[in-house]
Amino acid sequence: MANTISDQMEKCRVIVLDIEMNGVKQMKASSSIDARYLFIKPPNFEALEARLRGRVGSWKGLCCG
């Protein structure tokens, strides 16, 4: 049984995804998905740094020395 975004859209369901910017770019590139996007801004730079450092390997070289 397929459980894709398109399948859920056909059932008129609301789909909520927690995705990174690369995922957002892929979603925007798909003309078959009429999506809305919400960016949740961290409260301050320290919180952003903590979030990035909590990700394994993805932040290295991007910021925070």
TrEMBL record:
The keyword Transferase applies. Residues 3-55 form the Guanylate kinase/L-type calcium channel beta subunit domain. It comes from the Eukaryota. GO terms for molecular function: GMP kinase activity. The keyword Disulfide bond does not apply. It comes from Aspergillus piperis CBS 112811. It holds the Pfam family Guanylate_kin. This is Guanylate kinase/L-type calcium channel beta subunit domain-containing protein. GO terms for cellular component: cytosol. InterPro entries: GK/Ca_channel_bsu, P-loop_NTPase. Keywords: Transferase.
